[in-house]
Amino acid sequence: MSSLRTLVLNNGADRRLRGGHLWIYSNEVDNKKTPLKDFTPGEQVMVESANGKPLGVAYVNPQTLICARLIGRDSKLRLDRSLLVHRLNVALSLREACFDSACYRLVYGDSDGLSGLVIDRFYDVFVVQISTAGMEAVVGDIISALNKVFLPQAIVLRCDGKMRSTEGLESYVEVVQGEVSELCPLEENGVSLLAPILTGQKTGWFYDHRLARANMQRHVQDKKVLDLFSYVGGWGVQALAAGASEVTCVDASEYALDVAVENAKLNNAENRLITMQGDAFDSCKAMIQEQQKFDVIVVDPPAFIARRKDIRNGERAYGRINNLAMRLLSKNGILISASCSMHLERDRLIDIVRSNARELDRSAQVIDQGHQGADHPIHSAIPETEYLKSITSRILPAL
After folding, report:
1. In terms of pTM, does the model score above 0.70?
2. 219 with 296: CB under 8 angstroms?
């Protein structure tokens, strides 16, 4: 086994790693002993504390704020096909224990010991997202490991995320094995659906709200439902499948709404689906003017708070859209307010719902709180792996 070069940390900089975290920031490196500029992006290194004690093996990118990510504590480990096969099997055992069908997030980065790697599974089609130079350096091993553990019909590389430019990586989308159609079948909560894995957002689907969408199904029988920021109908079509009398999907993407229609057709419900292409805020204002009302409204926007500095403006955006949604609710209607912004605390989202209800002379009765599913496990030492939240409330007249 080839020896690795050493990355030495500053005095005290190992405290977070000893607590279980996996990231090393550039200001934690002893640049006098081991200058970051001397390392190659993606290079694997041995990490040592200031007193020379080995902390584990990591891969490095000197160009980024998170300049290294631990692969493991054993100095003999290497990020290679063998390790990838092992961790894929460990990840698979969790998913098989939690889900009946082979449709889920197979690998969720740090939480599955594979920082910088996400793999979504659609039966025998695997969509791979690589966001770091360290993972890009072993892309061949990732493909080989998938073939060792599974019998893939197809493997797609969706390497076009925003983080890649920060890592100095080019963006690309490539079918590296097999053939895939424009829309890929999947199943969620017993509902058959389609995902645009080549051209859609992220990997084409968002499995993370699976639990909240299952809970939603209990509230929509014979109800009129509004799905804001609907994308391809993850919420709305599952509402149709659960017996909603009518669902309106609102999204800025005409293509996403076209896929939502296909998903409705797949569930013999296209005659109960209305699509509205445009900005969700403007669409809500127009529907308020038309005095439309809905029994259940889902507000699941993109991350309004991408960075900590966006918190104030992001919270205002969450407040505005929830306020507009409440104005469209029927008496005693159900509001499902969701957020994928890690920097928005759950209690803060509840407070946003509460304060906007009060502004409209109503009260919010929280009846359920949603979390990311088991295929998005939370690393107990890495709070950044917990990001998803949803609040289901009954909006009542003020007491």
Report:
1. yes
2. yes
